[in-house]
Write a structure and sequence with these properties.
The protein starts with 19 loop residues before the first strand and ends in a 10-residue tail after the last strand. The chain is built from 9 helices and 7 strands; from the N terminus they run βαααααβαββαβαβαβ. The chain has a 7-stranded mixed β-sheet, with helices on both faces. Strand 6 (208-212), helix 9 (216-225) and strand 7 (228-230) form a beta-alpha-beta unit. Helices cover 42% and strands 18% of the residues. This is HAD-IB family hydrolase. Keywords: Hydrolase, Magnesium, Metal-binding. Pfam families: HAD.
């Protein structure tokens, strides 16, 4: 999928083409997992049982091991808002983004996004979190687009189901390829930033892979492949 060899137009000088910068969201752009923060948020709002926190944490242990059943995770975490209209959800999401996500942003992540923008690069987020959370966060960060797990709605009401390819593990590559095909612009090179071994397929598909605060498995792989490892810090103790 590396753009230099596939979608690059032979008639355009390489020097005039922008790069594409791809950022994972959780533990990469923010010092927490946005879906985990959301679960605590809706529990605190009385929209879900406190038992959901324990259930979600157990599922996240599987994520860390690379064995999560993403459909089961999404079913559990979407159940509390199933039947809610998009209009009812919007103010909750806005409050969540401002009170939980904004304080958790890595300053170095914001700086890196701005670095790409100054170079004229296109910047997108690809996340294995639901689009109801990822897209508002992308708007906060003023990036060009966001790919996330798509949610099913009927008559502007959330059903609690997902639709399409889940942007998880190899699914991120599938979704990125579809996004590239839908955009006529070619790119000189693809950059990718992530913390998780679950994103190894995506890192292997780009020209410039970066391991950001990598988990042990990704750190080992990055060292073996001589990929750049970036350590981003946050001064606050973010509740996860």
């Amino acid at each position: 999928m590396k753009r230099k060899n596939t979608l690059l137009s032979n008639t355009q000088p390489i020097t005039k083409l922008p790069n594409l910068a791809i950022f994972d969201l959780d533990e990469t752009l923010i010092a927490a997992d946005s879906a985990s923060l959301w679960v605590r948020f809706i529990v605190n709002k009385g929209l879900a049982s406190p038992l959901l926190i324990e259930q979600e944490q157990n599922l996240m242990k599987d994520y860390a091991k690379g064995s999560m059943d993403m459909q089961s995770y999404m079913a559990a975490t979407l159940a509390p808002i199933a039947g809610m209209s998009t209009g009812e959800l919007a103010p909750l999401i806005e409050e969540f983004v401002q009170t939980c996500i904004r304080p958790a942003l890595f300053p170095a992540a914001i700086e890196r996004i701005e670095w790409h923008k100054r170079r004229g690069d296109t910047v997108i987020i690809i996340s294995a979190t639901g689009e109801h959370l990822v897209r508002p966060i992308a708007e906060l960060l003023l990036v060009d687009d966001a790919l996330a797990i798509n949610l099913e709605t009927q008559n502007n009401t959330l059903t609690g189901n997902t639709v399409g390819t889940l942007s998880y593990r190899e699914g991120k590559v599938v979704r990125l390829e579809a996004w590239l095909e839908a955009h006529s612009d070619s790119f000189n090179a693809l950059y990718c930033y992530t913390d998780s071994i679950n994103d190894l397929p995506l890192l292997q598909a780009v020209d410039h892979p970066f391991a950001v605060n990598p988990d042990p498995a990704l750190a080992l792989h990055a060292q073996m492949q001589e990929w750049t490892i970036m350590n981003w810090h946050h001064e606050n103790d973010i509740q996860r």
